[in-house]
Write a structure and sequence with these properties.
It is a single chain. The longest helix is centred in the last third of the chain and has 25 residues. By secondary structure, this protein is α+β, with helices and mostly antiparallel strands. The chain has a six-stranded mixed sheet. It has a four-stranded antiparallel sheet with strand order 10-11-9-12. The protein contains eleven helices and 13 strands. The two termini are about 30 Å apart. The structure holds alpha-D-galactopyranose (GLA). Alpha-D-galactopyranose binds next to helix 5.
């Protein structure tokens, strides 16, 4: 299915209506935060690598109003309302989705902010389980809402790290910094090159209107807390120890070959992915900075192959969707395609000429549906603004 994106004002309006119809109050605050798609640099944010994501035109929106109590009453589309006692230190509890919020509240509590009671309604246009960081967007939108409620503005990196910590401690996913950085630092017409060794983002212009990004969700769902993600992360840590360096940024392929005989084949392949993906991302960033896209297709294909064969986080549906984009090829307006995000299902990202975007998306949609019987979800996006009060 091809879908158009809701604007920030439409999302904000939807959240306000939900708040009014569920709690009978008008909102005094609305926070929004986008999901993200990563162009290149996958599974290396936790390896001191570089990543190149953008915030997408898909958002979590939260409308809220103080309620003169010590309780947060929160409703999220399709779920039963939850009540959180703000006078108590937040702990992990049911339902599962509430932990993203509990984790962020706990961070504010640890920073000694006094949170007033409030009613809130959460809406989202980010598909869940699609590898588009719906959970990071929820954390970042909620952190932005809490900033508004306590009348403060945290430094952006601090807010992103706080949201990441909530994900680690309350959702149990040992994620890197990419998703929360993209959701908070996102800017219209800009990609975000993140140096994950220094945690410094650098904006890379994506202002050429003739280029667009298609996100294609295979609708095969993954769950990052199911162990695959942490297993990959552990492999990279074990590999680095074996190689004997303190950071992947100081590792060359030669260093890996020197220790290859002492490594299990799996660990060797994980290492090869990390070293080559860091190099591909640096090259891709140079390509975007110099508007030279001649090599971008092979960098993206190389990244996909490496994730499929060496890092083993792809799946048949992702491989098929990438193959469909590649089949349309340069003649049809496709510059490059690869799986994106944590993997084990989820989405692929395709860089293409804007003029062809709709036709490309339609073809990918129809061919994927015909071959798998699964209805995918595709949309075209440009880089969007990061978390803010709307
Ligand atoms: C998930 C994590 C990110 C990153 C990607 C893979 O989205 O949350 O930190 O590791 O997977 O690149």
């Amino acid at each position: 299915m091809l879908e158009s994106n809701m604007t920030v004002s439409e999302i904000a309006l939807k959240a306000k209506k939900e708040l009014a119809s569920n709690f009978g109050v008008e909102s005094t605050l609305v926070a929004v935060a986008p999901g993200r798609v990563n162009l290149i640099g996958e599974h290396i944010d936790y390896c001191d690598g570089f990543v190149l994501p953008l915030a997408i035109e898909r958002y979590v929106g939260i409308a809220a109003c103080p309620n003169d109590s010590k309780t947060a009453r929160i409703i999220s589309t399709g779920k039963a309302a939850i009540e959180l006692d703000l006078s108590k230190e937040q702990q992990i509890a049911d339902p599962k989705w509430s932990n993203y919020l509990r984790g962020v509240i706990r961070e504010f509590q640890d920073l000694k902010y006094h949170l007033p009671g409030f009613d809130a309604a959460i809406v989202s246009s980010i598909p869940i389980g699609a590898g588009l960081s719906s959970s990071a967007a929820l954390e970042c939108a909620f952190a932005t809402l809490l900033e508004g409620l306590v009348d403060t503005v945290l430094p952006t990196a601090e807010k992103a790290l706080l949201a990441q910590k909530a994900e680690h401690d309350f959702a149990g996913v040992p994620c890197g910094i990419m998703d929360q950085f993209a959701s908070t630092f996102g800017m219209e017409d800009q990609l975000i090159l993140i140096d994950c060794r220094t945690s410094e983002p650098e904006m890379v212009p994506f202002s050429d209107p003739t280029l667009s990004i298609i996100v294609a969700n295979t609708n095969v769902s993954h769950d990052l807390s199911d162990g695959g993600y942490s297993a990959r992360r552990k492999d990279t840590e074990d590999a680095l120890t074996l190689i004997g360096k303190s950071s992947w940024r100081d590792v060359t392929m030669n260093d890996v070959y020197v220790r290859q005989a002492d490594m299990e084949d799996r660990i060797f392949r994980r290492s090869r992915h990390v070293v080559t993906e860091i190099a591909r991302t640096i090259e891709a960033a140079i390509a975007f900075k110099s508007d030279d896209f001649s090599n971008i297709g092979s960098l993206m294909s190389g990244s996909h192959r490496s994730l499929r064969d060496d890092f083993e986080v792809s799946c048949d549906e992702l491989d098929l969707m990438v193959a469909l984009a590649q089949e349309i090829g340069f003649e049809g307006g496709v510059l490059g395609a690869r799986m994106t995000g944590g993997g084990f299902g989820g989405s692929i990202v395709t860089l293409c000429h804007s003029i062809n975007a709709k036709v490309i998306a339609r073809q990918m949609n129809d061919r994927y549906l015909a071959q798998t019987g699964i209805e995918p979800l595709l949309f075209v996006t440009r880089p969007a603004a990061g978390a803010h009060l709307a």
